[in-house]
Amino acid sequence: MSTMREDYFAGQIAENYDADTTGVFDPAVIGGTVDFLAGLAGEGRALEFAIGTGRIGLPLSRRGVPVAGIEYSSDMAAQLAAKPGAAAIDVRIGDMTSTRVDGSFRLVYLVYNTIGNLTTQDEQVDCFLNAAAHLEPGGCFVIEVMVPQLRRLPPGETTQVFLFTPTRIGFDELDVANQLGVSHHVWLGEEGPRTFSMPWRMVWPAELDLMARLAGLRLRERWADWGRQPFTSESPKHVSVWEKPAG
After folding, report:
1. Strand order across the beta sheet in which 168-175 lies
2. Is a pLDDT exceeding 60 seen at residue 79?
3. How far is Cα 75 from Cα 16, in angstroms, rounded to an integer?
4. Which of 2, 131, 183, 218 lies at a CB distance of 3.0 to 4.6 Å from 141, suitable for a disulfide?
């Protein structure tokens, strides 16, 4: 069931989103992601949950794949709308757990840990149900998300640094028992520090597979990255593909 949640990407966060320096805007990263998704979409349509500023949706559309998107933050959607090629993408403002887009799709996808923005198990299940409702028979739902790095957390510790540079610091506060975290970001500049924090829910691959089964989907493939490197116990993230059975 959809619930109202805070728009953590409003205002300055949306305005500065494309200035991310973690490497997700590297052309090689984007190109590999788009290659993977375009191969699954084939001649069909693609729907991006949490399309944001169009980091993936726009180049996928330029590849010739008809793309639609659902985005919770109207400010993020406004950043997308101002870019060349945005007119080709139908973006609906709404929640990816419940918002519907007309027609059916060969591909629904959700990248860059965004499944974690849904902070309850019920919401994450609803996301799978909504993806399945949009898919045509034989279509696929793709999620890119990190594997919880709890082996790096010493006993008694609840904080984990994931980024430390001269201009940016990122760390997570973790509630392991409840599979919850809060990511804190600090940008250091001449005008003083700028901060951003938001909650997220950690989720394991096996839990996602069960959510997929509840939605009538089955695991088709799982990789360590968009380049289809094997997924192992050491993989920090996974790209998983669940398929809606034909017929």
Report:
1. 159-164, 168-175, 180-187, 194-201
2. yes
3. 11
4. 131
Quick one: angle between helices 121-134 and 205-214, nearest 10?
50
β-strand 194-201 against 180-187: which pairing, if any? antiparallel
Residue 21's pLDDT is what? 66
Q: 85-92 long-range CB contacts below 8 Å, 24 or more apart?
A: 85/58, 85/61, 86/54, 86/58, 88/61, 89/51, 89/54, 89/57, 89/58, 89/61, 91/51, 92/68
Averaged confidence pLDDT in the chain: 94
Whether 45 and 108 have beta carbons less than 8 Å apart is answered as no
Please tell me the least confidently modeled range out of 6-15, 91-100, 107-116, 194-203. Answer: 6-15
User: Sheet harboring 67-71: ordered strands across?
Assistant: 90-93, 67-71, 46-49, 105-110, 135-146, 237-243, 218-223
Distance (Å, rounded) from C-alpha 130 to C-alpha 159? Answer: 33
- C-alpha 199/C-alpha 172 separation (Å) is 9
**pTM, full prediction:** 0.93
Does residue 1 have a pLDDT over 60? no
Higher pLDDT, 78 or 168: 78
- Whether residue 99 contacts residue 76, with contact meaning beta carbons closer than 8 Å, is answered with no
